[in-house]
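Researcher: For the annotation table, I need structure tokens for Phenylacetaldehyde dehydrogenase. Please keep the output clean. Sequence:
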Amino acid sequence: MSSQPTAPIAETARQTADRLAAALAPAPRGLIIDGRAVPALSGKTFATENPATGETICQVAEGGAADVDVAVAAARRALVNPAWAAMSAYDRGQLLYRLADLIEREADELAVLECIDNGKPASLTRWVEIEGSIKTFRYFAGWTTKFGGETLPVSPRSGARILNYTTREPVGVCGLIVPWNYPMSMAAWKVAPALAAGCTVILKPAEQTPLTALRLAELALEAGIPAGVFNVITGFGEAGAALVAHPGVDKVAFTGSTEVGKAIVRGATGNLKKVSLELGGKSPQIVLPDADLGAAAASIAAGIFFNQGQTCTAGSRLYAHAAIHDELLDRVAAEAAKLTIGNGLDAGVNFGPLVSQEQWDRVASYVEIGQAEGAEVMIGGGRPAAHGEGFFFEPTILRGAGRDMRVVREEIFGPVLSALSWSDADDLVAQANDSDFGLSAGIWTNDIRQGHRLAAAVKAGTVWVNCFNMVDNATPFGGFKQSGWGREHGRQAMELYSETKSVWVNLS
């Protein structure tokens, strides 16, 4: 009896990476402006590196202020081009569905591309970045036919019969500036609602991670989105600053550090463009003595060590009740020990490198600062012995941290957990809220009444009770205090990219 034919084995992540590297290396990647890949007007390029090896993947066009001028002009033309401006809401939604399908078609390749450019393991980029982006585009595709104005009852002094209604119009040309920690996801979070609302966009990815942004724009063109609607400028701070200050840009959306967010607010004053900001965080993880310590420890470890701690919502401040403090830290350390550190192209790896040498130096300096201030390195604290190449940093716990230490007050953006002990509930809330940031918080307790009370008392845009780092396109995401302005996801995101017009019609 003859054997049945076997299905061909799909190429491994390393094989995909080798194929991509061979395709990318020969010529610099261009900017995407008005539907075409073009070099920077200056002719300059820069290298994008693989964080796991430090090796150059390819050269990328270094856009500047002159390129921003060209991209803004293209976006303004596209904004009034009937091919986009007169497109029905239904057809606009269909284009976004088609783009989601194309991302799904290219999912494995995009996951590897993100892995070699960002360092996050390919298995996680596939699950988080790419799958999340597919869902984001499909979610906002559905909003195109459901987002509009309303008819309002009014009482004019004249007694005239008046029909009053509102409409929603696209805010215009949007400059979208995204970070390097979740390049594809953050691009989708901004591009999808902006296009759903009928805007045109200029996407500025971080210089460390430009590759998936460029590929996303190529797929958008393949999906049928008209030229000039979705442009990409790669480059450094000069390009971002030019985009923020440009009088032809109507709105800026930014995800990144609070320091840069403040600079963006200042730069946007020229034409008083709309600004939305998702900024830094220093999220507390609050553990009550009645909590399920096994579940809490696993989630706390994931909350600080996922993506090597390079997450704005990272639960980097642990407030453990004195009665369970030592046991909980031991459990979190045990969870950290389960992580497999290595090149994200290898099967089984779930903890990759930091994004760059600059970021490695920043994280290392904070560990030194914490020790100088009196904290003890319980685990980690430096480069793993087996990973001399690349920008790897061990999962780290700083024990005995104090509320006034810099490692407790400042965002490190790396796999460093600062652990504090508490015994007084009122002081706990005061400590948790004693921060410039207010992006998110985690609460662990089996007393649901205490969970609700603490959730109400903590000043944060998102509070997770007996879970952490859960997000969904349907629920708003953003921060209190210096963690930002506005909310992404849901109807709130559509509102960020639209203007409300009130129309009065005299029927008398």
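Researcher: And a one-line annotation?
Model: The chain has two domains: 13-279+485-501, 284-472.
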